């Protein structure tokens, strides 16, 4: 149960229990666009919140650590981490869903496209990822299972930032790569890769995971949510307003709105990335209980400590805050 003495109907009208909010986010990527838009437009400030967006360059695992240790109040991180932490006895809960699809893209080096045509052809190949142990590894492992392979049948190579990915493909250090935009659209545009699986689309997500796979969300420890329902409501108000803006404005409008510190790539590349990625973003911040079954199934296949029957998905998220967001004017 969500605690707090403030009635649900008054969460958005009551002063926030805490107005200075520390929010951790991972490396700058198009998947972060809802947060970038929300922050850049001053939507947090409109809700009476002073949100400090703190980068965690080492990825989603660093965001999770920051939230669990209390270094920050809220994280923009992977939804499936709420499942993993529940299995470890910790209460982490998503409050606003940002990405209904992961946005990961698998590409084959263009000069190998005639030799790597099926998943079975991945055997013995080098697959580049930004950060080993992250979401890309999960996607690769899930895809390999469809061909009776495991991650032991390939070599996972950590490439670091987008520049590292680009250099590794150009120098033929890797045979395939799994990453997000903007680097993947750039590689495709210059003819260096051929996209094979694209989870920016529902069809590509189903091909990779066997269902929809919600990814980035705003989450917090249940204890923080219980103690700060008015602040969380205002955070949800701002987040949903950002999602509405994202879906109601052109790519050029979005690029104009984003603060310079958040911009990625040249203007033409950024516009192409936004156009290709728009379908992966939630429209209302709500979690679909049915879609959450896919991350549970996928993560459980790789982590023996996670027993699906012992996980209560209803405790990994709440829609109470997004449901209470006022309608658009």
Summarize the structure.
The protein is α/β, with parallel strands linked by helices and 329 residues long.
Strand content: 15-25%
The CATH topology label of the largest domain is D-Maltodextrin-Binding Protein, domain 2
The strand line-up of the biggest sheet is: 2-1-3-10-4
**Assembly state:** single chain
- How far the N terminus sits from the C terminus, by CA atoms, comes to 31 Å
> Helical residue percent?
25-40%
Ranges where pLDDT stays below 50 over 5 or more residues in a row are 1-5
Superfamily (CATH H level) name of the largest domain: Periplasmic binding protein-like II
Roughly how many Å is the radius of gyration?
Answer: 20 Å
Number of helices: 14
Count of distinct strands: 10
What's the number of structural domains? 2
The averaged pLDDT comes out at 93
* Level-1 CATH class name of the largest domain: Alpha Beta
So, CATH architecture of the largest domain? 3-Layer(aba) Sandwich
The main pleated sheet reads as: 5 strands, mixed
Instruction: Spell the H/E element sequence.
Output: EHHEHEHEEEHEHEHEHEHHHHHH
Q: How does the helix and strand content classify structurally? A: alpha/beta
What would you call the shape? globular
Structure in words:
The chain has helices spanning 33-40, 43-46, 60-68, 80-87, 135-145, 162-170, 183-189, 202-209, 222-227, 229-248, 251-257, 267-277, 293-302, 320-323; strands at residues 20-25, 50-55, 74-78, 92-97, 105-109, 126-129, 155-158, 176-179, 193-198, 216-221. It is an alpha/beta fold. Strands 2-1-3-10-4 form a five-stranded mixed sheet, sandwiched between helices. The longest helix is centred in the C-terminal third of the chain and has 20 residues, at 229-248. The two termini are 31 Å apart. Mean pLDDT is 93; it is low at 1-5.
């Amino acid at each position: 149960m969500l605690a707090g003495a403030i009635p649900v109907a008054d969460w958005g009208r009551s002063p926030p229990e805490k107005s200075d909010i520390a929010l951790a986010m991972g490396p700058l990527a198009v998947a972060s666009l809802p947060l970038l838009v929300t922050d850049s437009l001053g939507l947090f400030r409109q809700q009476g919140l002073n949100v400090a967006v703190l980068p965690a360059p080492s990825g989603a695992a660093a965001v999770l650590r920051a939230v669990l240790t209390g270094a920050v109040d809220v994280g923009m991180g992977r939804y499936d981490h709420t499942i993993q932490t529940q299995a470890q006895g910790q209460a982490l809960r998503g409050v606003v869903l940002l990405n209904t699809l992961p946005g990961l893209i698998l590409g084959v080096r263009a000069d190998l496209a005639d030799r790597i045509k099926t998943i079975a052809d991945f055997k013995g190949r080098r697959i580049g990822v930004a950060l080993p142990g992250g979401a890309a590894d999960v996607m690769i492992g899930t895809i390999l299972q469809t061909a009776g392979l495991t991650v032991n049948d390939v070599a996972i190579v950590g490439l670091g930032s987008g520049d590292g990915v680009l250099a590794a493909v150009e120098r033929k250090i890797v045979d395939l790569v799994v990453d997000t935009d903007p680097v993947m659209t750039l590689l495709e545009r210059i003819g260096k890769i051929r996209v094979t699986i694209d989870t920016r689309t529902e069809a590509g997500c189903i091909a990779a995971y066997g269902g929809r796979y919600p990814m980035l969300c705003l989450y917090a420890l249940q204890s923080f949510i219980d103690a700060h329902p008015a602040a969380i409501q205002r955070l949800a108000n701002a987040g949903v307003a950002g999602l509405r803006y994202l879906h109601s404005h052109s790519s050029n409008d979005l690029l104009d709105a984003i603060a310079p510190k958040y911009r990625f790539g040249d203007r033409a590349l950024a516009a192409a990335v936004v156009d290709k990625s728009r379908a992966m973003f939630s429209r209302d911040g709500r979690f679909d209980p049915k879609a959450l079954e896919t991350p549970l199934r996928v993560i459980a296949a790789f982590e023996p400590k996670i027993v699906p029957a012992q996980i209560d998905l209803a405790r990994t998220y709440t829609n109470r805050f997004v449901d209470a967001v006022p309608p658009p004017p």
